[in-house]
Amino acid sequence: MNITTERLTKIHPGGLCALDAVDLHIESGTVGLLGANGAGKTTLLRILTGVLRPTSGRVLVAGHDLATGSGLAAVKRTLGYLPQELSLYPDLTAREFLDYIGVLKGIHDRRERRRQVDDRIAEVGLDDRADERLAGFSGGMKRRVGIAQALMGSPSVLIVDEPTTGLDPHERMRFRALLAGLGHGRTVLLSTHILDDVAQTCPEVAVLASGRLVFHDTTAALVSQAAGCTYVCRSGRPADGPPPGAEVVSAVTAATGTEYRIVTGDPPPGARPVEPSLEDGYAALLGADGRARPSSRTHPTSIPTVR
Length: 307
What we know:
CATH topology of the largest domain: Rossmann fold
Helix content: 25-40%
Radius of gyration: 21 Å
Strand content: 25-35%
Number of domains: 2
Shape: globular
CATH architecture of the largest domain: 3-Layer(aba) Sandwich
Order of helices and strands: EEEHEEHEHHHEHEHEEHEEEEH
Structural class: alpha/beta
Oligomer: single chain
Largest sheet: 6 strands, mixed
């Protein structure tokens, strides 16, 4: 199953352009969607799920045109969606909630619906809590219920928006492991601002900046954006600050000074070159303000296997 957008544009009331002529083509597997707050990620996801209509452009999901009634209906039968904020019914158990979602998705055969509920509960690791009310679930458990409801009906396309925001480190690691296995045999689009989520789960990444697609390639190719320009340097005093003109990826302060990890084409004296990470590549592409840099070495939709 694939997702294709052609010159996709969304202008909100008041003239705010959320998406600007986005051309994107995604095949099967898990793709990370990155971008700063306000880059257009959630707007794109809402259009892909049929929740929001574009101002102009075309959207095809699994070959179905979302501009047509029949296409939209077909997509909703083959698509699972976990929004950033999922409203659960606290008085229902996890099993009751998934059964209700199954009815909404048109799984009318009770035996088949029960089988799917049991399978989804097992898939997200909630077997021992399935008959407890959702009101008592932790944030991570609620996100797992969210994935389970998105998987009801065995969708071939799965769209997930900021799934690990607010989770503690243990729940985040567990959720990443769950996400990593969802791309087999389906297309998964994972929108997040947490780069580690993409590094751990997505072999491919697309980046939005100010409503434009500025990068679409392998995750390794994004890392390589910072090849040869990633350094670690130390300031003598915590108050000295980072080197001017450098993109600061991280800073660790101690009594003897601050160690900065930076991306720059002009390293300060004494800076030590290091191998780049995904964070470094992202900083090299967008800079600290989240906008694509004119010197970027990338081209959107650049890998042949994605076309």
